[in-house]
Structures are given as C-alpha cells and as structure tokens.
Design brief:
Elements: E1 8-18, E2 28-38, H1 46-112, H2 118-153
Antiparallel strand pairs: 1-2
Helix pairs in contact: 1-2
Length: 160
C-alpha cells in the first residue's frame, strides 16, 4: 500500500511502421516517446494510515493464531490429564467390581449355608451392581476423553 501511493514515473517508447490507405502508397515509420509522472498531492497521509492499518491487521491475525495454538495445546493437555484420571478410575472400579463379585458370591454361599439372611445377599448384589455402574461410567468418561484427544490431535498442531 505504501509503495502504491508514492510518486510513479512511467516511461514509454513506440516505433511502428504504417501503411496508409490514402492516395500515396508509401511506408511511413513513426517513432514516439513519452514520460508520465504521477504524484498524489492531496492524499493527506491516507496511504500511510492504510499501510499501518494493514500491518496492524496482520499483527492481530498472527496474535490470534498464536493464541489459538496455545489454547489448543492447553486443551489437549487438560484432555490428556482427564483421560489419564479416567483410565486410573476405571482400573480402580474394575478392582472394586472383582471384589464385589467375590463378596456377593461369598454372601450367597453363606446364605445357602444358613449363616446370613437373604437381605444381606440382596445388599451384596446391590453393591455389585453399583460397582458395575461406576465402572461403566468411568469407562464412558475414559472413552469420551479419548475421543476429545483424537479430535484435538486431528487439528494438526498437537500430537501426543
């Protein structure tokens, strides 16, 4: 922008061979040269302001891009941390399901032997069901965070 509003000089030259259609049939060689000078006198600093505006817009676009990249990296790190936490919670819930399964089996065996009431068997089964539900929820959270990580990684600028 700044260069386009300064003084401009245009030089031109032309040489042509003409064949007129008049009564005299002779070839004429015509040579011409020209110079043109253009300089805006009354712009009032408009070109400078436009150039500064474009430079400011370019800086703002670079800053927005940099901020977006930083935000993407931060979101990816947070999603990775949430995925790691969900994976650990899933492992804890798996262990809890195994323990509750064993407890439910032992409680049922004790009921069959007549040592515990049926209500304790139902309580043990309810605890097992709660543990299985917690495992399913933590597995869902783990898979959701894995999908978020994949989505953020497919943007191209963040990788594991």
């Amino acid at each position: 922008l700044r260069a386009g509003h300064g003084p401009a000089v245009v030089l031109s030259a032309r040489s042509s061979r003409d064949y007129p259609n008049g009564p005299v049939h002779e070839t004429i060689t015509q040579n011409s040269a020209g110079a043109n000078l253009r300089w805006s006198l009354f712009e009032g600093g408009r070109a400078v302001r436009e150039a500064e505006e474009q430079a400011s817009l370019a800086r703002a676009a670079r800053d927005r891009r940099r901020q977006t990249e930083n935000d993407l990296r931060r979101e990816w790190a947070k999603a990775r941390d949430r995925w790691t936490g969900a994976r650990e919670e899933t492992e804890l819930n798996r262990a809890a399901v195994q323990e509750r399964t064993e407890l439910a089996r032992l409680t049922y065996d004790a009921y069959r032997a007549g040592r515990t009431p049926f209500l304790e068997v139902q309580s043990a089964n309810l605890q097992l069901l709660d543990a299985q539900t917690a495992l399913a929820r933590s597995r869902l959270a783990e898979l959701t965070q894995l999908a978020v990580l994949e989505s953020l990684s497919s943007k191209g600028s963040v990788s594991p």
